[in-house]
Each structure stands twice: as C-alpha cells, then as structure tokens.
Inverse folding.
C-alpha cells in the first residue's frame, strides 16, 4: 500500500503536476491522521471493554462476598439474641430455682461478638480505580454506604460494646468470690472447692445486687442495640445484592 502511494507521488512529480502533488500529499496526510485516530479509538474501546468486563466480574465477586456477610450476620444476630434473652432471664428471679451455678455464670453478659466482613472485591475495585465503571451513581452510592459509611459506624459500635463488656467482665470476676467454670472440659475435671449451694448463693448475691442488676440492664441495652445494628446491616447487604444483580442483568 505504501509503495502504491509512493508511485503515485513520483508520477505526479515527474509529470510536473506540482499542485496536484501537494493536494494529494495533504490528502494522504489526512488519511494517515484519520487512520491513527480510528486506531486510537479502537484501542480505547478495547481498553474500556476490558475494564468493564473486569468491573462486571468484580461485581459478581462482590455478590459472593455479600452472601458470605449475610451468613456471618446471621450468626451475630443469633448471638446477640441469645445474650439478650440471657440478660432477661437473669433479671427474672423466678428462673433461678432450677438453674445450676455454672448455668448462671454462663448466662452472664461477658461475651462480645465481632464481625469480619468480606471486602476482597470492594478492595480490588478501589485499588484498580474501577469504581467509576460500577454502573449508576445510585449503585455506587449504595456500595460506598455499605462498605464505608455503615462499616465505620458498626466499627464504632463494636468498640463501644467491647469496652463496656470488658468492664463488666472485670466487675464480675473481681466481685464474685467463686471459682469460674472451665469452658473446655478436661479428663478428670477438678471439682470446685465450694459446694454447689455455696457457689449458687454467691452468684445470686451479686446478680441480685443493685450494681449487678444495673450492669445486666445496661448489657441488655447494648446487646439490643448491637442486635438492631446487625439486622439493619443484613438488610442492607441483601438489598445491595439485589441492586448489583439487577445492574448486571440489565447490561
């Protein structure tokens, strides 16, 4: 092709057709520029297609991450419901009659339940600067709300819950004058020095005290707050899954 155009230019020059040669040369330059622009456009289109496909794949991965989150949230919800119910039982004196000392101790609100969310897809999207290719601004906002805004809020609540649970643990361990139960049973498990009635009496002494009941009530409030947070977060995750799937299917 290049040889063909070169021969045309030589022919025009040899025939002394300078004006025609200049016109032809300018036209050839324009054609070359147009060709370059078309090539660049095709390259940009291919690059955008690759990035869009990558973003689409990461969105599918995000759906999987969110599904994993909902399973973890179900466990958190079950845990906080369990602890809330235990707090209610501890505040109800009539339930103590047939409850052993170990069972009473295990009902104390001494546990906190952290939540590790799966953020692999979200992190990859941010690291690759693909957030602008996720789709509508509404979807982008929903993703940011779940992984940033609500995550930061939940983290503050977990920190608050952990701080107060640790304080409660110090109170119960320092106030109760009994040996604490072993969470993991061993062969020939050593017996307690105190009798069962003595252990139960000591537990009830602290549980039914004013400070003991206040701490249990405060713990109940915390567990309920955390429970509502987990339920809201689960609902947000489910809604986000729906939005992402809807966006993917519409492409």
């Amino acid at each position: 092709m290049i040889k063909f155009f070169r021969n045309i230019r030589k022919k025009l020059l040899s025939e002394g057709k300078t004006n025609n040669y200049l016109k032809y040369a300018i036209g050839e330059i324009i054609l070359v520029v147009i060709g370059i622009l078309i090539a660049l456009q095709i390259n940009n289109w291919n690059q955008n297609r690759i990035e869009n496909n990558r973003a689409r794949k990461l969105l599918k991965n995000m759906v999987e991450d969110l599904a994993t989150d909902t399973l973890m949230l179900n466990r958190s919800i079950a845990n906080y419901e369990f602890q809330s119910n235990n707090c209610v039982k501890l505040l109800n004196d009539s339930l103590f009659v047939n409850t052993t000392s170990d069972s009473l101790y295990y009902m104390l609100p001494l546990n906190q339940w952290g939540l590790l969310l799966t953020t692999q897809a979200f992190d990859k999207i941010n690291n690759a600067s693909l957030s602008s290719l996720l789709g509508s601004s509404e979807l982008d906002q929903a993703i940011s709300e779940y992984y940033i805004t609500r995550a930061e809020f939940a983290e503050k609540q977990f920190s608050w819950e952990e701080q107060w649970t640790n304080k409660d643990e110090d109170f119960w361990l320092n106030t109760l004058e009994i040996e604490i139960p072993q969470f993991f049973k061993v062969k020939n498990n050593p017996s307690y020095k105190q009798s069962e009635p003595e252990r139960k009496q000591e537990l009830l002494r602290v549980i039914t005290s004013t400070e003991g009941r206040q701490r249990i009530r405060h713990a109940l409030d915390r567990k309920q707050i955390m429970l509502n947070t987990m339920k809201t977060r689960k609902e947000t995750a489910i809604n986000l899954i729906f939005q992402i799937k809807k966006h993917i299917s519409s492409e």
The two ends are 41 Å apart (CA to CA). The CA atoms of residues 25 and 74 lie 73 Å apart. Residues 18-90 form the longest helix (73 residues).
